[in-house]
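Design job #97: recover the sequence.
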């Protein structure tokens, strides 16, 4: 097993599986710019490494991810504007969509806002019984074309309206989310690792082009949604 560590994103590799672990449990794994940059860099490395057959994204603690780190977003010292935050999140989501190898996301507990968006970009979404998916941006006063785009792409207009406009919550049992869970009582970590290892053995020459075809529209939609979010923000300034 090869291991590396940054402040808030742990990376290790076992056989053909690269594992990325969000590691800010004291902040519900809220995403800061270092974590987003780390995810993007890890996906680039995994794409280019012939020894990596699949990637597993998971997290430490009771929550998968509580969304973006709003303290950083509104901290003038951090010089990390809301627009920069949107663009960096959109770029991370696009990198997940364009990653040509299997990408599994394992969710335990809440996946909120940007955390829910990360989960919805999975090729295979694995979740435990405590998993909860929510996109509360509109209820918090933040227009969110990006969240609406991701939710609609993942589960159709009904899921997008439920989560984004209705401030609803979905569980792993919601068929629109497309999550799977162990039927043998195995732990989430074990089940996700076994599932990812199996996917890593799929023929890359078949998987990559097929995934690219399935994801052909989402990258362009994310670009449009990010631009629309910027226009909305400029109108309300």
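Job complete. Output follows.
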């Amino acid at each position: 097993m090869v291991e590396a560590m940054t402040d808030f994103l742990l990376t290790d590799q076992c056989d053909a599986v690269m594992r990325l672990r969000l590691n800010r449990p004291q902040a519900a794994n809220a995403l800061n710019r270092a974590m987003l940059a780390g995810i993007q860099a890890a996906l680039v490395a995994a794409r280019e490494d012939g020894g990596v057959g699949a990637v597993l994204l998971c997290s430490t603690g009771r929550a998968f991810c509580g969304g973006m780190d709003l303290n950083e977003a509104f901290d003038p010292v951090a010089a990390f504007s809301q627009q920069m935050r949107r663009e960096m999140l959109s770029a991370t989501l696009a990198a997940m969509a364009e990653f040509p190898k299997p990408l599994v996301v394992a969710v335990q507990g809440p996946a909120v806002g940007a955390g829910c968006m990360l989960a919805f970009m999975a090729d295979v979404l694995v979740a435990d019984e405590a998993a909860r998916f929510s996109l509360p941006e509109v209820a918090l006063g933040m227009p969110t074309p990006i969240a609406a785009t991701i939710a609609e792409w993942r589960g159709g207009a009904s899921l997008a309206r439920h989560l984004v406009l209705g401030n609803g919550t979905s569980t792993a049992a919601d068929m629109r989310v497309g999550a799977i869970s162990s039927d043998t009582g195995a732990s989430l970590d074990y089940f996700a690792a076994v599932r990812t290892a199996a996917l890593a053995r799929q023929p890359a020459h078949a998987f990559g082009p097929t995934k690219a075809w399935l994801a052909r529209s989402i990258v362009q939609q994310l670009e449009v949604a990010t631009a629309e979010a910027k226009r909305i923000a400029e109108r309300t300034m």
